[in-house]
Design goal:
The protein is of the alpha/beta class and 352 residues long. It folds into 2 domains: 164 residues, 3-Layer(aba) Sandwich (Rossmann fold); 182 residues, Dehydroquinate synthase-like - alpha domain (Dehydroquinate synthase-like, alpha domain, Up-down Bundle). The chain has 14 helices and 11 strands. It has a 7-stranded mixed sheet. Helix 11 runs antiparallel to helix 12. 46% of the residues are buried.
Length: 352
Amino acid sequence: MTSIQAVTYPIHFNEKAYAELAGLIAAKNYSSIFILVDDNTLTHCYPRFMQLLATDKNIEVIQIDAGEIHKNIETCVGVWNVMTELGADRKSLLITLGGGVITDLGGFVASTFKRGIDFVNIPTTLLSMVDASVGGKTGIDLGVLKNQIGLFANPEMIVLDPEYLHTLDAREIRSGTAEIIKYGMTHDIRLFNDIKDNAELNIIDLIHRSIEIKNDVVLKDPKEQNVRKVLNWGHTIGHGVESYFLDSEHKENLTHGEAIAIGMICEAYISSELLGFPKDKLKEIKESIIAIYGKVEILDEDFSSIMELMKHDKKNVGGEINFVLLNNYENFKIDCKVSSQLIKESLQFYTN
């Protein structure tokens, strides 16, 4: 796969990427190198990383607990303390090796430590490869509210090695696939068609195109003032559902992609009601996504709590919930106002 140039950093693929990373380390002559991992990536990904990275620099490993529940300020304080104890300075490099939690949190840690040190993202999940590690967003959750604290900061480089996908189970692959479906519906319908029509599809083939789409959008609108909002298709309701299930004692946590898949069904329904999105395509979206992800039980009494959490969405202005909606595939509209009644109807459409 050919390298992709983002606004200030390159995205390199496969084993060539490790040579590029070694070149960066040599050229910048970092005073120290830290690698942030979680329980899973320390076991399954770190050995490959160390085998392929050619450098004589000493690397200090910082390990955090895995899972969205640990994507918070307490974890950041722990990492900052360890880096301080190990003598990190403004010429240090932090390498993030993991999924979206690691890349989001690690980028935030690096961008704020001593007012900012260099970092490199090495995403190891499909979700982080096609979404979280690309685009310069860093951040952490505030309680169950997703990504409420953070800033825009670009890595020096992204190392994208699809071999790490072999460490994932089918559920994690499906989670990342939701973001590829998002790119398909909003920018290149072939991606969605390939996924829904081919159960034996090699998802690796779709990674490069997905990153191209996201990078093109980010180049046009780095700080999400306008067109970048399209990358939130499915996320307004999806984040509300994800946060609600994360916070509920009686619900099993959903993966990010499972929640976004629900959000895309609901927001397709709203698109159909407000913008005339074709009914046959609405039916196609619902049937295809449920075929991939199954049906999650959401009760009528859950709706008000989900909608309350949606009020904290970062796209909202003046207390109004803003949506990205579809006129048709590859034809979207941003900053759409949607009534509470229609949001409730969309959740009912999903559950029926």
